[in-house]
Amino acid sequence: MDQAANWIAVDWGTTHLRAWAMGADGRVLAAAASDAGMATLTREGFEPALIALVAGWLVAGRVTPVLACGMVGSRQGWVEAPYRAVPCTPLEPGGFVAAPCADPRLAVRVIPGLKQLAPADVMRGEETQIAGFLSQDPAFDGVLCLPGTHNKWVRISAGEVVSFQTFMTGELFALLADHSVLRHSVGGEGWDEQAFGLALDDALSRPDRIAARLFTLRAEALLSGLAPEAARSRLSGSLIGVELAAARPYWLGQQVAVIGAAGIAGAYATALTRQGAAPQVVEGDAMTLAGLAAARGLMSEGMQ
Predict the structure, then answer these.
(1) Average model confidence (pLDDT) for the chain?
(2) How confident is the model at residue 94, as a pLDDT?
(3) Which of 27, 110, 111, 284 is the most exposed place for a label (fewest CB within 10 A)?
(4) Mind listing the pLDDT tens digit for each residue in 238-249?
(5) What angle do CA 33, 15, 247 make, to 5 degrees?
(6) pLDDT, position 299
(7) Cβ(140)–Cβ(156) under 8 Å?
(8) Cβ of 165: how many Cβ atoms within 10 Å?
(9) Measuring CA to CA, how many Å separate 189 from each of 161, 197, 228?
């Protein structure tokens, strides 16, 4: 049932829009989602897409604050929220950018992403998950792993993002599984834990052999009847293994927390555990919402 929100939390990515109606006490009153992601919209289309999703939570004659994170703040988004340079806290009081709204019931602010000049790197949306994690563990000193399409490894110290590095592992997996010759051999949603672990260990020990190892998935499917779930698990293990080999300076000997959806976060936790780490696993959506709540607490008086 629709009900008025004290404020609205929004996670607006490339492909999806998600929103939560928040009560004054911090409770989630309602949630909604659509496929109106940034990639599907012109700049003029953002406000109508949001209103279509949250109209039932708005009250005539009253301004409802909206806090949004993600690609909505990109150069192609509703309004560009310039990156903040690390080292810095994940959120900055008063640092949110106003989006232009024609509807008088809305006051939308967008959370900026973070940038690193050398080596060049950027993030949008992950800073909010980091803020959510730190709101629950402010003394954390170590490394956060945020797996997804573009995986982030983030050094955290004294409540600040010190440095980070992005790996395109998730996108590479999707490209290889769906658009390469491996699409004929990698299929289904099954999982072979042993195949994943063996491929992971092999890639960690010999990352230079990754291109050859990947083609063996196709060859073994043709010659030996390699099962699709085993091929899929080996593809994942190989790519994550190469990533862990390159990211070793981040996680080796460090306190590590993995923030993400259960399936992919579990795969990274398994991979790290096989290397002797003891990662904490935290659900990504919960950290996004916690980060948006932390941002709400930092909002300037001008948004009230």
Answers:
(1) 95
(2) 85
(3) 27
(4) 999 999 999 999
(5) 115
(6) 79
(7) yes
(8) 17
(9) 35, 17, 9
Report the predicted TM-score, pTM, of the whole model to 2 decimal places: 0.94
Q: Decide if 277 contacts 256 (C-beta within 8 A).
A: yes
Q: Report phi then psi at 217, rounded to 5.
A: -65, -40
Where in the chain are the domains? 7-124, 166-284
CATH of 7-124, one of 3.30.420.300, 3.30.70.330, 3.30.420.40, 1.10.3470.10: 3.30.420.300
Which residues, at least 6 apart from 15, have a Cβ–Cβ distance to it below 8 Å? Answer: 35, 37, 39, 40
What's the CA gap between 163 and 153, in Å, rounded? 8
**pLDDT tens, position by position, 66-95:** 999 999 999 999 999 999 999 999 999 889
Domain 166-284: which topology?
A: Nucleotidyltransferase; domain 5 (3.30.420)
Asked, as a colleague might, if the bond just before 87 is cis with ω within 30 of 0, I would say yes
3-class secondary structure per residue, 74-103? CCCCCCCCCCEECCECCCCCCCCEECCCCC
Strands of the sheet with 142-146, listed across from one edge: 160-167, 151-157, 142-146, 256-260, 280-283
Residue linked to tokens 């990156």: 83
**Cα 57 to Cα 2: distance, rounded to the nearest angstrom:** 6
Pairwise CA distance, residues 77 & 38, whole Å: 6
SS3 124: coil
Q: Are 126 and 48 in contact (CB under 8 A)?
A: no
What would the DSSP string read from start to end of 153-213?
A: EEEEETTEEEEEEEE-HHHHHHHHHHHSGGGGT--SS---HHHHHHHHHHHHH-GGGHHHH
| Closest-CA residue to 209 (of 231, 249, 178, 241) | 241
The two tokens of residue 257 are 């927390």
**Does pLDDT of 302 surpass 60?**
no
